[in-house]
Specification:
The complex is a heterodimer of chains A (about 450) and B (about 250).
Chain A lengths: L1 H21 L10 H14 L15 H4 L4 E2 L9 H4 L11 E5 L2 E2 L13 E5 H6 L3 H6 L10 H9 L3 E6 L9 E7 L6 E3 L2 E6 L4 E10 L5 E11 L4 E9 L4 E11 L4 E8 L4 E10 L5 E10 L4 E10 L5 E10 L4 E10 L7 E10 L5 E10 L5 E10 L2 H8 L5 H17 L5 H14 L9
Helix pairs in contact in A: 1-2, 2-7, 8-9, 9-10
Chain B lengths: L1 E10 L2 E11 L4 E5 L6 H9 L4 E10 L2 E2 L5 H6 L2 E4 L6 E5 H15 L7 H12 L12 E2 L5 H15 L3 E5 L7 H13 L6 E6 L4 H4 L4 E6 L2 E6 L1 H10 L2 H10 L1
Helix pairs in contact in B: 5-6
The chains are: A alpha/beta (about 450), B alpha/beta (about 250).
Chain lengths: ~450, ~250
Amino acid sequence: MIEVQEQQNQLTPYIDQFERFEQDSELSPAHFLPIRKAAIARFAELGFPTNRDEDWRFTNVAPIANMVTSPASQRTAEVSPSDVSPFLYPELDGPLLVFVNGRYCASLSHTQSMPDGVRVLNLAEAISAGDPVIEEHLARHACYQDRAFAALNTALFEDGVVVHVSKGATPDKTIQVLFITSPESVATVAYPRVLVVADESSQVSIVESYASVGPGDYFVNSVTEVVAGANATVDICRVEHEGDNGFHIGSLHLHQYRSSRVQYHLMSLGGRLISHDVYALLDGEGIDCSLNGFYVVEGKQQVDNHLWVDHAKPHCDSREFFKGVLADQGRGVFCGRIIVREGAQKTDAKQTNQSLLLSDRAQIESNPQLEIFADDVKCTHGATIGQISEESMFYLQSRGLSKAAARNMLVYAFAAEVMATLKILPVKTKLEAELFSRLPRLETTSA
Amino acid sequence: MLEIRNLHASVEGKEILKGLNLSIKAGEVHSIMGPNGSGKSTLAQVLAGHEAYEVTEGEVLYNGKDLLDMESDVRACEGVFLAFQYPVEIPGVSTNYFLRAAMNSIRKYRGEEELDAIDFLQVVKEKTKIVEMDEGLLQRNVNEGFSGGEKKRNEIFQMAVLEPSLAILDETDSGLDIDALKIVAGGVNQLRRPDRSMLVITHYQRLLDFIVPDFVHVLVDGRIEKTGGKELALELEDKGYSWIEGAASTAV
C-alpha cells in the first residue's frame, strides 16, 4: 500500500502539470490533444520504472521520480552566447536552433541560411499551424504506449525541432540543434522533442546537442523521432554534455524504409545519469543502419544504452558499435537486442560493445540479446571488458613516455576507433580535443 | 657505462637472477647466451624497469647513476632502450604518432626542443632506410597486424630514431628467416658507435655471425658462468650448454 501511495505521489506533479497543459490550446490544439491525453494516461498507468522492470534492472531512476521539479520553460533564464558557444560548432555554417529550457530562443539561433528543400521549423509553431508532416509523423513512431518516459515527453513537451527534407533534396550543410537547460536553485524538468523526416532519396546531416548551465538539479526527458524515407541518407550525431547535476532519459525512434541509410552517433560526455534507448525499425529491403556510441563516466556517473534493432524485412545490414571508458565509480549498462523477423532472410547484423575499466570500482553490465525467426541470416555480437594492459603500458614507458602520457595514449586509442566513424569533421575534431583534455582527470584508481 | 653487481631478481616470488655480475664499457657489444629459463629475458626486463620483476639484492649503475631507482620512462630518457622479444601491439595508435610522442618526451627531458610533425617525419624517413622498412608502416597502428619480421624491424627502427646509449636486444633474431635476420643485424651494425653500448641477448649463435660481439657471456641459472670472446659462441654451438651447466653444478 505504502508503495502504491509513493508511486502516486511521484506521478501527481506531472499529472497536475498536464491538467494545466491541456487547457492551453496552442500547445494542445484539438487535433493533437487526443495523443497528449493517451500519452499521459499511459504514463499514469506505467509509472516510473523500478529495478523490477527487466530493462531497468541496473538503473535506479528513483532520484528522478523523487525529484520535485518545476517545468523549466516557466523560468526566464539568462543564457548568453558565451554560455552556449562551448557546445557549438562554428565551422558548420548551416542553420542553428538553440532551445533554452525547452523553448526556442531566436536570439541565439540563426536559420537564415536554410538550404533548398529543407524546412527547419520550431515544433510549437508547426503544431499550432497543423503542418501535414506533424499530422503524419509526430508521435507516430515513438512507442509511448510501452515506454513511460516516451509517454511523459509526448504528453508534456512544449517545443522542439522539426526537420523536413523534401524528396530528392540533398543540402550540403549540417543542421545544428542545441537544447540547453539552465537549472537554478529549483530542480527543473525539460522535454526536448525532435522530429526528422527525410523524404525519398533525400539526404540530411544533423548535430543534436544537449547541455546545461547552472548549478541546480535537472531532468531532461527527450524524444527524437527519425523517419528515413526510401533511399534516403540520414546522419545524426547526438552529443550529450550534461552536468553532474543532470539526469537525462532520452530515446531515438527510428523508422527506416527501403534502401535507406542511417548513421547515428551517440556521444555521452557527462551527466549524473544518462539513459538512452534506440528503437530502430528496418522496414524495407536493402537498409543500412549504423548505430555508434561512445561514453565516458567518472565520479558516480552512469550511462545506459539500450538498443533494439528490428530487422523486419530481408537484405538489411545493421551495425552497432559502442565503446565506453569507465573511471572511479562510474557505471555503464549496455543492452542490445537484435530481432530478426520471420522472412527477414539475408539479414546481416553485427553488435560490438567494448568497455575499458580504469578503476576497480567501475562497473559495466553488458547484455546482448538475439531473437531470430529466420534461417538464412548472419548475426554476431561481441562484448569485451578490459583494463589497460600492463604490457602496453610498459612498452610505451620503455620508449620514454611517462606513466600518465602512456595511459592517456592508450585510453585515447581505445576511443579513436569510434571517433574515426564520425563523418561530420568539426564534430570529430572538437570531441577528440574534448576527450583528450579530460583524460588526465580520469584517474586510474584501485580499491 | 653499465655496472651490474650481484643482481638478484624474482618474479611472482620465484628467484630468477641469483647474483649476476656484468660490466659493459662505452662502445662495447656484449652478448648473453644461455639455455631456456636461465634468466636472459628477466635481465632485459629488469634493466628496462618492468614492474613485475622485483630486485631483491644487488645494484645496477648506469653512467654512475642508480638505474634501479629510475622509472622505466626515465631510463629511456637517460638513454636505455630495450628491443622487445615480443613487441606489443597497440591498436588505435599510429607508429608515427607514438614515436614522435616518445622522441619528444625524451628531448624534453634532455632540455632539447620538441620536433614538430614535419621535422619529425624527415628524421624518421631517413631512419626507415636503416632496416629497409616500408614507410607505409609509419601510418599503421603500432605493431598491429605486423608480421614477425616487421615487428623486429620496427624495434630496430625505433632504436635508430631514439638513439639510445645503451641498447638491449632481447632475442631480436628469434623467429626471423635468414633474409630478415641479415636486414635486422645490418641495421644494428649501422647503429654501432664508440659511445653506444649494446647487450645482445640471443638463444642462437647464428646472430653473432652478423653482429660480432666483443664479449660473450653464458648465463646459467641466474648467474654468468663463463665469459669469453666471440669464439666462445662457436664453442657453445659445438658443445651445447651442458658442459658449462655441468661445471656450474660441480662448483656448487
